[in-house]
Model the fold of this input.
Amino acid sequence: ISDSVADPEMYTLMTDSILPTIERSRDPALAESRRIIRNIRQRKLYRFVDEFILPPQSLDNDKLRDVQPVDISTFQDGSGTQLSPDDIIVHNCKINYAMKDKNPVDHVHFFSDWEDDTSFSIPKHKVSALIPEQFQERIIRVFTRDPSKSAA
Done:
């Protein structure tokens, strides 16, 4: 399976049948993969706990590091179920239009007719009044491995 990544011809033959191939395999190196696939099929998924959208002004801070499980576990108030860093999965997600904080429409150029060689941009106020001010957001999602601890 892993050899197909380096061989374009083998890679083109890869399909969704990779899952049954892993499930049927007795290779000890694929034991963890088999466990993950079995959990997905049995709907034993990680439980969503909460999410937080960072304020737009914090996106400009390049020194802002990703939130880690230990950061979440240290901010518990001590009441209720306690989560250890091993119980927590943090998904740091940045969503944008592939240009970070830039408006992708600003980089689209138009031509007045088929034979024209000169391109031009359309000013923002002539495109739409619905163009957003932010073109990137950062979401922190927290999951737990143990569903009984999802209320923590």
In short: DSSP finds five helices and three strands in the chain. The first helix runs from residue 8 to 12.
